[in-house]
Design a protein that fits this description.
The complex is a heterodimer of chains A (about 130) and B (about 550). Chain A is of the alpha/beta class and about 130 residues long. In chain A, about 40% of the residues lie in helices and about 20% in strands. Chain A has helices at about 20-30, 45-55, 70-80, 100-105, 120-130, and strands spanning about 5-10, 35, 60-65, 90-95, 110-115. In chain A, strands 2-1-3-4-5 form a 5-stranded parallel beta sheet, with helices on both faces. The longest helix of chain A is centred in the middle third of the chain and has 14 residues, at about 70-80. Chain B is of the alpha/beta class. Classes of the chains: A alpha/beta (about 130), B alpha/beta (about 550). The interface between A and B is large, with 34 and 44 residues.
Amino acid sequence: MAAKVRVLVGKPGLDGHDRGAKVVALALREAGFEVIYTGLHQTVESIVSVALQEAVDVIGLSIMSGAHLPICEKTVRLCREKGLDEVLLVVGGVIPKQDIPALKEMGVHGVFPGGTPFAEFIGWIKEKTAGRLD
Amino acid sequence: MGVARYFKDEKDRIQKVELQSGIEVRNSYGPQDLEAVGFDYAKDLGGPGEYPYTRSLHPGSYRSRAWTTRQYTGFGTPEETNTRFKLMISQGQTGLNVAFDLPTQMGYDSDSPMSFGEVGRVGMAIDSLADFETAFDGIDLHRVGAGLTINAVASIMLAMYRAMAEKKGFDPQKISATPQNDILKEMIGRGAWIYKTHDAVRLIGDTLEYCITDLPRCNPVSVCGYHIRESGATPAQEIGYAIAIANAYIDEVVKRGYEVDQFAQRITFNFNVFGNLWEQVAKFRAARKLWARNLKERYGSSEPKTQWLRGLFGGGGYGLTKAQPENNIMRGAFYGLGAALGGAQTIALCSFDEAFTIPTERAAMLSLRTLQLIMDEVGLRDTVDPLAGSYFIETLTKEMEQKIAEEMAQVEKWGGIVQAVDEGIIQRKVASQAYAYEKAVQDGELIKIGVNKYVMDEEDVPDVELHQYDSSTQDRQVARLKEVRRTRSDRDVASALKNLERTAKDKANVMPALVEACKAYCTVGEMAGVFREVFGEFQEPGLF
């Protein structure tokens, strides 16, 4: 069987609204990705550590609490420290559009606020990871 | 969002309507439909204020008393929240509905590393009794009741509310707090759980037992079908799971030797309002009937008040859209209408900007005005249960009752609600339904205005003003906390926490020990930490 692109869906912070994270995890799995879902109440440290252990290609963070700027900043920093430079970092959830430039600038590769069609982020991940498994 | 599925012919004529709970709506209804579902006036409906209370709890319903308006409020530090509380009360709001920040909900102090970035963000930060004293400063607690949206640490917050009220000279026998305190729904949906299932349920039993004599006007548990629905459940599942959950809490107290009529009248409900209007109204009416029967037939209640389903029907969060956000103002009006037609005791609406963040003052005020408009201008207080007797609504209410009963029977087959939640059966079910729902919206099978019909370019949609988080909140709150730690008696704190630990280990009722710990200015993190040590934490079941 061909190896699959591995995506970690993480819920950083204390927020427990996980409908979005779970729906995205199910959509990615149906689209043929290998999906690892962290469950709730994860620290950024634990998410990055799972990403390292599981050798994932993509980290997707779901953030609804409004704390996306500090959480993403920390995730980018830890990923760099751990040498996860090749891992794509994407974020979804309740993300106001005025915050998107700041997220991109700090090193988040893709921002997909709630309501983004599945095809859009699935297509994006497929395109960005194309050729990785060859 | 929960809209119905419409099957149309090539000329766009509706051929079939299927509600989210799986009920088919027909072209028209008549007496034959009532007969087909076995509708019996006395048994299914009765008069207003008569068993099984399908029509209303009170003979006069909204003529005697309009519903309570209780917008969800709280952000930043306790001072900021206090200012907003006073504003809402000055504008005619009749109850408070307190939002706590995530560290408080999860039992961490504002200076814990776990609180990183989240202090005062989605609600107000509470670390100790000193914060509660500030938050409720100048509010008449004999007159205004407070909903407390807190679950895993609800026992702590209820104890703190009592300690605060006593300190301000209010009589604990006369104060009214309604902590949410429904941990099973947190495990299904909202996610703010801490302790293992059985210990968490026992804590809820402690609050119910304690309130019987010590806080008789408090409503210690508000069972929230609301969040279960937000997570992907159908309206029928929302009610069925909620009643099953309420029964689990009742069983916890009954096994301690109490009769239901001593305490079950203090259990209230919180249900959701988005979706098809008729389905919601039928859901509320069927829920009242089923709850009354449940108390009478399953538990032998002989006291009408115990059999009353008292509810906050409101919110509607999942019905709101980011696309064309001002449309949410109109959605809120229809959701409020559904709640009023359904006989709510209390209504609160999500504000139009809540698809983005917590509401601005303007948005919260618009929600309050929406409810006041429905109350005073449109005629919702004119007569009791105005839709009663409609062939359609009565048929639908009977069909809804049947669907809810089926969902409850399914829960029994899974081994009961506690087991079904502990094993993640319900969580996986609602997640897969949420996924199917999203696909249906994205494929255009379920219509959502602004999302998949009448879509506009984002540039053409006016920006809405959003609540801005004040990044100095954490520092200011941590300074308050340090001041409390500096001025309190370390000896009293140590002894109160020791006593709390002993009580928790002995499986005795923790409430008296919590009240004493609050009075000694123990922090939420310290008290919740004792329970973390003694009970251990819930392990989330897997998604796949």
